[in-house]
From TrEMBL:
Organism phylogeny: Bacteria, Bacillati, Bacillota, Bacilli, Bacillales
Name of this protein: Amino acid ABC transporter ATP-binding protein
Topological relation to the membrane, as annotated: Peripheral membrane protein
UniProt entry tagged with the keyword Transport: yes
Record domain ABC transporter: where: 2-240
PROSITE patterns linked: ABC_TRANSPORTER_1 (PS00211), ABC_TRANSPORTER_2 (PS50893)
GO cellular component, one term: plasma membrane
InterPro entries (UniProt xref): AAA+_ATPase, ABC_ATPase_HisP-typ, ABC_transporter-like_ATP-bd, ABC_transporter-like_CS, MetN_ABC_transporter-like, P-loop_NTPase
Main location: membrane
Cellular localization per UniProt: Cell membrane
Amino acid sequence: MIKLEHIKKQFGELEVLKDVNLNVEKGTVTAIIGPSGSGKTTFLRCMNVLEQPTSGKITIEGQTVDFSKPVPKKDIINLRSKTGMVFQQHHLFPHFTAVENVMEGLITVKRMDKKQAKDKALGLLKKVGLSDKADLYPFQLSGGQQQRVGIARALAMEPSVILFDEPTSALDPELVQEVLKVMKELADEGMTMIVVTHEMKFARDIANEVIFMDGGYIVEQGSPEQVLVHPKEERTKQFLQLIQ
Ligand code: ADP
C-alpha cells in the first residue's frame, strides 16, 4: 500500500537520508527505531511531505509522486491527505476545546457542516477514551490526554496511514501507557501505522515489522523477533545493548 523508493534528503550539505526503501502493507504496524540523529523523524516527515525528499518516489494507495522532478502542489496536497501525523508534542490549538480541535479539519478540509463535524468529533473522542473531556481546553488536559486528542484529530481525516513521531517521548512515565493503549486498539482494528519509537516493548508486542535506521540508511529490518531478539547487524546489536 505504501512504497518508498530511493528516498534521499539533503539539508544543504548534510545528507540525512541516503537511499531509503520501504514497503508497508495495509493494516500493519511498522516501528522505526535507531539512534538519535539517524534520520527517523526526517523519514517520517518526508512520508507526510512536511519535508520534500531531494529525490526518490513515494507511492501511497496508488498515487505515485516522483521527487526527482518538480512536483505540482496539488499532487503534494493529495499525497499528504492520505497520511495523518501525530507529533511528539501535540500541536493542538490552545484556544480551541478538545472537540473543537478535532472538528477543525473536518470543517476546513472536509467541508462538513458544524453539527456533522461535532458528532463525528465526539465519536472519535469517545474512541480515545475522552468523552468527558470534550469541552476542556488543552491546558486543562494532561499530556497523555492531549496526545489522545491529537490521535482523534488525525483519525478524523480518515487517512490511509497514521505516522507517529515518538508520540510518548515527551510524556511523564505514568501517562505513556494510556497513549500506547489507544495505539494498540487502533492497530487491532487494522489501522496502518508507522511509528518512530523508543518504546521497545511496544515495538516488540505490537509491530509487524521493525526497522532499524542508522546514518541515513535502513540497516536492518524484519519481524520484531528478527530485529530485536536476533539482530544480524553489528550496529543493531550495539544500539539494542545501549538502550537495554
Ligand atoms: P532522528 O529522528 O533519528 O533523531 P532526525 O531526522 O531528526 O533524526 O535528524 C537527522 C539529522 O538531520 C540530524 O543531524 C539533524 O540535525 C538534521 N536535520 C533534521 N532536520 C533538519 C533541518 N530542517 N535542517 C537541517 N538539518 C536538519
